[in-house]
Structure formats: structure tokens, C-alpha cells
Write a structure and sequence with these properties.
The chain has 472 residues and is an alpha/beta fold. It contains 19 helices and ten strands. The radius of gyration is 27 Å and the shape is elongated.
């Protein structure tokens, strides 16, 4: 059996272990089977024909229920060839057999066995000490590989961040000898600091030996998931778990769109970011010495916004103005100086790299230039006096409604109403101190018939909660 994931990692190429459908379910989201197929295909297509070599799509946890088993099977069959599909299971023979059955007979099929690595987690998950749990994990790998030679077997060492590095190194070597393709080290509770993550991957990697392919599965409870993943990459790891929009248990994990963009948008900077693997004297694996060498086919970054929007729509996890790379604030301008030189106020060109057209947002901070540009987009040419008056109207409306952003429909109504009345200039909308409060409100607040009200903020739809599962 050709293990394209293991081959890619050993060649220094990046493999994204996509957890949106599996660990994402623990973020109280439920992706229908058809959507999982659609997401898997979309993610694989970002890498062209090399999707299976760059993406492992964790399709789900078959042991949850019959419906979940069927969903995983549907992804394995219908996303075949677009990505490598994996079924995830607990470290028991029955669950391993069920996971193998869910992906059996499809190209690039994989299963991931979750095995506890720390004493505390071993006691809770399998009621044994860590040494025995790891030894049994070796036998589970061997049994799963023997049950179907066409299915690759990977292992996730749960709670690795609180486990003994030497014991994990020995176990990883033994699991690899038994047939494991990748051994992922999990910071299950998201407690690691970057220096701790760097030490864990460097020490386990050195102790396990060159034949072992390590991967990362790092949660974001302290907001350090991405930083810790970069430390894993610097240590030579090339299989990294992530999830679209960072959806995963509790505070989530590394966001797929952020990780891919960071590593692909500027290969030279990616090379500086990663540097040589810590603790190694032989350099990076072949092809891994620079940012460009991370890819068989570099991801098409212009696909990221659409995929993220698709995930947001189906899960109810919002794209906010502060969401990096794919959020509503990317490419937006609302103040004067950035409007004049937008390149000075953004770290990359969103149109060139992501296909996101720059946009001007009308807010209480708008300058006359911004107001003039928005008015032009609505079909109105303003002179200097009109621009100042319109700017005053915009600011007054924002503070009156308590919302920073002024809806363009309302602004367009302000302009259209005056044009229809034959006005030669736009009046100042600021309320006069000489007017009584009622008159001030009347002068400042247009009627609903003349100027449409600002649109309400979008509401987040309810999400479904799936059954419980193992938490690497």
C-alpha cells in the first residue's frame, strides 16, 4: 500500500489534518454527510491533483452512532481521490474494526486510533497506567494494519503535553515499527506554551528516530494554537491538525485558513518563519528547506474565503470583522489616511492573494474623502461643501443609532431624497442647539419613508449538538 501522507511528510511537504467535521463536532456543530463531502472536495481542490497528498480529511467518529458511521462512509466513497479520508476511533479493537470498515476499499483510506499518553488521561480513558496504555496502542496498530492492508493506520497520543517525552518517543518508534504511518502529539487541553511545544516535538522526535513521522494536534485554549503549531513545524513536523474557522472543542484549535495562508502567501517569509528544524544537524527533509518546498502543489489561496464562508453558513460560526484572512474586515477601509494609501495599512494585497476586492465602509470615522467615494458609488458626485455636509450627516446618524457602520441604503436615501427635491446642496444634518429637543430629533432623524433605517445585525443561527466522542 502506498501511504501518500507519510511519503509527503518525509519529503518535507505539509499535510493538513483537517478536523472541522470531527473535532469540530465538539464545538457543538454538526455537519451533514453531504456537506462533509462538499467540504472535503473543496479543500482538496485547492491543491489540484495533489489533494490526497496535502489533506487528510477526518470525516468523523463512526462509533458515535449509525448515522455517524454512514456519514463517514459517504465521505470516504464520494470524496475519494480529492483528499485522504480518515475515520477516527478510540483505542479499542472493536472501535478500530468499525473505523476500518467505514473507509475500507477507498483510495488513500486511513484510520486514527486515539491512545492516551499521560497517566491522568490513561486512567480516565482506559483505566490503566500510561505505560500499559501505550503498549496496548502498539498492538492495536498491528491488529488494524493486519485487518486490512489497504487502510493506513495513524495514532494520536492524547494529552501528550502532560506525558513523559521519553515514553512517547519509545511508543512512537514501536507504533511505527508495527505499521503506523503518522503519530500525532496532542495538546488535548490547549495548555502548552510555545517553548513547551518546541521542547516536546524536538525531544520526542529525536528520541523516536528518523523513521517516525510525527504530527501535531494542538488546541487553542490559551490562544496559542497557531504559535505552538509553528514550533512543531520548526521542529520538523509536517503533519499539522487544523480546522476551518478554528472550530473544535472548547476554544477550538488552529484555523486552517490562517495556517495555509501564513505558510503559502509569501514563501520567502515562510522560510524565515520556519527556519531549520530545532535540534537537527541534517537540515530539513528533502524539499523542506524553504517555504516553497512545503508543497507538491501550493494551495490556491483565492479559494479560502469561499470555503470559510461555506463553513460559517453551515455551522453558524460567524465570520467577524476581526477574523484573520477571511473575515469581513479584510480589505476594508473606513478612515482617511488608509483610503489614500491602503497598501501602507495592510500586510498583504487581499485582492491579489485572496481575490477579495477592497471595500469602503461608511462609519463615524469617515473622512470627506471616504464619504465622497461612497457617494460616487451610489451615483452622486459631491463638491467639497456637499461632502462636508454629508460627512456631518453620517457621523450624526452613527452616534444617534449607536452603531459605527452607517448602512449605504440609508445614506443613499439621504442623497436621493435631496436630489429628488431639487436641492442644490446637501444641508447640514447636525441638530441645532437653538431648536427644542423634539425639533432637533426631527431635523436630525429622517423619516422612514425618506431614508431607510440601518439594517439590523445578522443573528447567529442555532446549531445542533452531536453525541460525545473521544477528545484528542
Amino acid at each position: 500500500m502506498q501511504d501518500v501522507v507519510r511519503e509527503s511528510a518525509r519529503a518535507g511537504r505539509l499535510v493538513v489534518w483537517e478536523e472541522s467535521a470531527r473535532d469540530g463536532a465538539q464545538a457543538k456543530t454538526l455537519m451533514p454527510a453531504g456537506f462533509r463531502v462538499r467540504l472535503a472536495r473543496a479543500q482538496g481542490e485547492a491543491f489540484g491533483a495533489d489533494g490526497p497528498r496535502h489533506v487528510v480529511f477526518a470525516a468523523g467518529f463512526p462509533a458515535v452512532c449509525t448515522e455517524e458511521f454512514e456519514a463517514v462512509r459517504k465521505v470516504a466513497v464520494e470524496a475519494e481521490g480529492a483528499v485522504s479520508v480518515a475515520a477516527v476511533c478510540r483505542g479499542t479493537r472493536a472501535d478500530a474494526a468499525q473505523a476500518v470498515a467505514a473507509v475500507r476499499g477507498t483510495a488513500h483510506a486511513r484510520v486514527m486510533l486515539v491512545v492516551p499518553a499521560s497517566e491522568a488521561m490513561a486512567g480516565v480513558m482506559v483505566h490503566r497506567d500510561a505505560r500499559r496504555a501505550l503498549a496496548e496502542g502498539v498492538e492495536l496498530v498491528r491488529a488494524a494494519r493486519e485487518s486490512d492492508n489497504g487502510v493506513a493506520v495513524d495514532v494520536c497520543l492524547a494529552d501528550a503535553s502532560r506525558a513523559d517525552h521519553g515514553a512517547m518517543a519509545q511508543a512512537a518508534a514501536a507504533m511505527t515499527a508495527a505499521g503506523a504511518g503518522v503519530v500525532l502529539l496532542a495538546d488535548t487541553v490547549g495548555r502548552q506554551l510555545p517553548g513547551e511545544a518546541a521542547a516536546m516535538f524536538a525531544e520526542v522526535g529525536a528520541g523516536a528516530g528518523a523513521g517516525v513521522v510525527l504530527g501535531s494536534h494542538l488546541h487553542n485554549d490559551l490562544g496559542l494554537g497557531l504559535a505552538n503549531t509553528l514550533e512543531a513545524l520548526r521542529a520538523g513536523v509536517r503533519v499539522t491538525s487544523s480546522s476551518w474557522l478554528g472550530i473544535a472543542e472548547r476554544s477550538g484549535m488552529v484555523a486552517t485558513e490562517q495556517l495555509l495562508f501564513l505558510l503559502a502567501h509569501d514563501p520567502g517569509r515562510a522560510a524565515l518563519l520556519l527556519g531549520p528544524p530545532a535540534g537537527r544537524t541534517d537540515g530539513l527533509p528533502p524539499g523542506g528547506g524553504d517555504g516553497g518546498g512545503l508543497w507538491w502543489t501550493a494551495p490556491d489561496l483565492t479559494r479560502l474565503p469561499a470555503i470559510a464562508a461555506m463553513v460559517s453558513e453551515h455551522t453558524g460560526v460567524p465570520l467577524t470583522v476581526t477574523t484573520p484572512v477571511v473575515g469581513t474586515g479584510v480589505g476594508s477601509i473606513s478612515t482617511g489616511t488608509p483610503f489614500v494609501r491602503p497598501d501602507l495599512f495592510q500586510p498583504y494585497d487581499p485582492k491579489a492573494l485572496l481575490g477579495i476586492e477592497p471595500g469602503v465602509v461608511l462609519t463615524h470615522l469617515a473622512s470627506a474623502r471616504v464619504v465622497t467615494a461612497v457617494a460616487a458609488g451610489l451615483g452622486h458626485r459631491l463638491d467639497a461643501a456637499q461632502a462636508r455636509a454629508a460627512m456631518t450627516w453620517v457621523k450624526a446618524r452613527a452616534y444617534r443609532t449607536g452603531r459605527a457602520e452607517v448602512d449605504e441604503q440609508a445614506f443613499g436615501g439621504y442623497l436621493d431624497g435631496l436630489a429628488a427635491a431639487g436641492a442644490t446642496r446637501l444641508p447640514d444634518a447636525r441638530p441645532s442647539d437653538a431648536q427644542p429637543p423634539s425639533a432637533q430629533h426631527s431635523a436630525a432623524q429622517p423619516s422612514d419613508a425618506q431614508y431607510p433605517a440601518a439594517l439590523p445585525s445578522p443573528t447567529r443561527p442555532a446549531t445542533a449538538t452531536p453525541g460525545s466522542e473521544v477528545r484528542p
